[in-house]
Design goal:
This protein is an alpha/beta fold and 478 residues long. It contains 15 helices and 20 strands. The chain is elongated, with a radius of gyration of 27 Å.
Length: 478
């Protein structure tokens, strides 16, 4: 049985820029867990491998700091330094020649496998192969053009084709391999590719196959994603979340202060749509708590400074995997909840925009100046964080949904206690290199009362100044 794993993780991930400008590609997270850790867990749990070599180069300190010696993950990790992280995959693997003297399994660090059958690789006996290539049948021929495919004769691989322009097979080459130490000599004997100027791993294996060596296929099952670009990364996140979405719990958080006349309608609207309705009652003097509790909401009574503090407390206390914020005045409705949840498969946070005129109820507090002011400040945030590819038209809309894992990443960067908390949260997600999507939602008249932050032009101006001060402070570290 193979006892050693090797994970190449030295590349700069240029095609995944800007996501990889400040972060190693293998440290990109799928649902709160870096790609490289998922592959370490795969080696550990499915193959019983406890000794793992990792080839590091670009932004290597990030990887070392996170993984350490591997003991916290139940493995032993040894690092092999690749100073020339543009040298290519095969030459990077060659650096392990002096450390690895027995058969080993390689899994590329920038891939994710879901519900795979890697444990069946244990069926291969040590002397039965020179190379085993993990393959997967696919209907997505474009994926094959980005990776490699093979030719198989009598259950042996006889040829490999890197990024083929003409597709003759539905077999997708994946980044899972079984190797013997003979691979290192084969790498040294292979000339650099005229196209890339590098020794390509597929060309090394192709040479062995055409020499008649024992190069065999292993047919992987489950779902596979190779993260070459930002689009690949976003799709991998979407695929993971979609696969497990029914397992995630949803909490709705309602900050409230003296909302007895409307809180009942809000709780009733959401209580049967989610797993938890959490009302954060900021020391109301009316029957807000009694009404919400009677209707099945969980109520936490607090004495906090302001609106932002109350929301943050609710986000901290909510039990769900998905956290949804709504107002207590019934200006937002549960009918838009499904849209938030659908787009959350594709984003770390989804925020509503109240700027679509056809979706604003007549009499709602979204008159022209307020609406266009939100648009202007939203565009300012876009400009100041232009490299994050964000699109904002409403910085004041608090109807939003965020994954708890994403919230944990930004929690310590949220300081606003008032209405500035809303754009601060958006900016914190951008600064954490997370994905934000804005969607149009319906907006209704408050059931009662007036907005504490936008009831007149004076308060609108005061709120706008707070937001602008916070925005420039975040951008320029003032």
């Amino acid at each position: 049985m193979v006892k050693i794993g090797l994970i190449p993780a030295a590349g700069a991930g240029v095609r995944a820029y800007p996501a990889t400008h400040y972060l190693s590609k293998v440290m990109l997270e799928i649902e709160g867990k870096p790609l490289i850790l998922r592959n370490i867990e795969l080696l550990r749990d499915k193959l019983g491998i406890k000794k793992i070599y990792i080839i590091v180069g670009y932004l290597q300190e990030q990887i070392k700091h996170f993984l350490g010696d591997g003991s916290q993950f139940g493995v032993t990790i040894h690092y092999i330094r690749c100073d020339q992280h543009t040298v290519g995959l095969a030459r990077g693997i060659l650096l392990a020649r002096d450390q690895i003297t027995e058969n080993f399994i390689t899994i590329l660090g920038d891939e994710i496998y879901l519900h795979s059958n890697h444990e069946q690789l244990k069926d291969f006996k040590p002397n039965d192969y020179e190379v085993v290539c993990g393959l997967m049948q696919t209907d997505d021929l474009e994926m094959i053009t980005k990776n490699y495919t093979v030719e198989i004769t009598d259950n042996k691989i006889t040829a490999l084709f890197e990024k083929p322009k003409t597709i003759t097979s539905n077999l997708l080459g994946c980044g899972t391999y079984l190797f013997t130490p003979a691979l290192f000599q084969a790498i040294e004997a292979t000339q650099p590719s005229p196209a890339s100027g590098k020794v390509e791993l597929t060309e090394v294996i192709n040479n062995l196959a055409q020499q008649g060596q024992k190069v065999y296929p292993f047919f992987l099952q489950g779902s596979y994603h190779n993260i070459n670009s930002v689009e690949d990364y976003n799709f991998a996140n979407y695929a993971y979340r979609s696969m497990f979405f029914n397992n995630f719990k949803v909490s709705v958080i309602i900050p409230a202060f003296n909302e007895a006349e409307s809180i009942g309608a809000v709780v009733k609207d959401f209580i049967n749509q989610v797993d938890e309705v959490l009302v954060i009652d900021n020391s109301s003097q009316d029957e807000t708590k009694i009404i919400a509790t009677h209707l099945g909401a969980r109520v936490e009574t607090v004495n906090l400074k302001g609106y932002g503090d109350t929301i943050r407390y609710g986000l901290d206390q909510a039990k769900g995997d998905i956290l949804v914020i709504v107002e207590a005045d019934h200006s937002f409705r549960a009918k838009d909840l499904d849209k938030f949840l659908a787009y959350l498969k594709d984003a770390d946070m989804v925020i509503g925009t109240r700027t679509t005129r056809q979706m604003i109820e007549q009499g709602a507090n979204m008159q022209g100046l307020l609406r266009w002011g939100n648009v202007a400040v939203g565009k300012l945030v876009e400009i100041l964080w232009w490299n994050q590819d964000s699109r904002f038209t409403d910085v004041g809309c608090t109807y939003r949904a965020i994954w708890k894992e994403a919230y944990k990443k930004i929690r310590d960067h949220l300081q606003g206690t008032g209405p500035e908390f809303s754009p601060e949260m958006m900016i914190a997600v951008l600064q954490a290199r997370k994905r934000v999507i804005e969607i149009p939602i319906s907006y209704y008249k408050r059931l009662t009362g007036i907005s504490k932050h936008s009831e007149n032009y004076f308060k609108i101006s005061k709120t706008a100044l707070k937001m602008l001060k916070m925005i420039f402070k975040k951008r320029f570290n003032l």
